[in-house]
Amino acid sequence: MTPGSGFSVQPADYAVQRDQLHGVRHAVFVSEQRVPAELEVDALDPLSHHVLALDADGRAIGAGRLTPERRIGRMAVLPGWRSQGVGDALLAALVGQARVLGWGEVSLHAQLPARDFYARNGFLPEGPTFQEAGIEHQTMRQRLDGALRVSDREQALAATATVIHRARRGLYLHLRCADDLFGEPLVLGALRRFAAARHDKQMQVLAEEADLVALPAAVLGLFQRLPSVFVVRTPVDPTDVQVASGRLGNDIGDCYFRPMGVLLEGELTLAAHPRIRAPDEQFQRIWQRSRDCNALRVLGI
């Protein structure tokens, strides 16, 4: 049982818990979304790893599976339990199972309304959207053994939201341009949730004053209202000023690294991969040499 959540997530034996799994999936896909009943069950079910979310009384409220094709699917949460962390817990359990199996990556087909949910949880979109069971979908992918390439704006948005959403108490950002990604609803929403968390937290922001004040007004307003959460410094050492790369990282080891900070292209690495330790150390060295940024004080926002 997740503390304070009222539900638990556990592996499911398909042969034993088939009715519970299909009960949730039928309610969501067939009854709610009008997917043909014959498409809800397939030959992969007996071959897949399944997880169930159960309420405090042992009733099934969510389900998902991991297929031999290394794809997460059939993610379903009953309406009364949505937006309460059930989907996040199911997804984490399936990704965890993929790690146990030693897989290097996992993919999924996200329904478009759920794309932001998966983006916040480490999956980057790729390719065009497509129809599946009469519903528009997007392929999304997560690397488990290294960095996943970030090549376009949609992937950059997902990578940025992932790092912020997965942070526990700390974020660090080396901003190398006036980045409008932070004004997008997906990213701005993640920043606001981070700021609203009840425990102590802080985001360290390194930025030139010109780049900082050019951020979207909603972001600057958030920084101004919560100066103890969003602490901003400006590099002054000539060597630090010349650093071209940008990065956004968190306290669990996720990092979106941009070799040329003015460009979106880069890579997303999750969960303390050794390759990102050196960039984190570099950020902290620059942070210690930098001065407090006063630019926010003079903005009339």
From TrEMBL:
* Family annotation (Pfam families): Acetyltransf_10, DUF7931
* Top-rank EC class of the record's enzyme: transferase
Domain N-acetyltransferase, residue spans: 7-145
Q: What is its EC number?
A: 2.3.1.-
Q: Name one GO molecular function term.
A: acyltransferase activity
Q: Which residues form a coiled coil?
A: none
Q: Where is the signal peptide?
A: none
Q: Domain of life here?
A: Bacteria
Q: Which CDD domains match?
A: NAT_SF
Keywords (alphabetical) are:
Acyltransferase, Transferase
- In Swiss-Prot or TrEMBL terms, this protein is called GNAT family N-acetyltransferase
Source organism per entry reads: Stenotrophomonas capsici
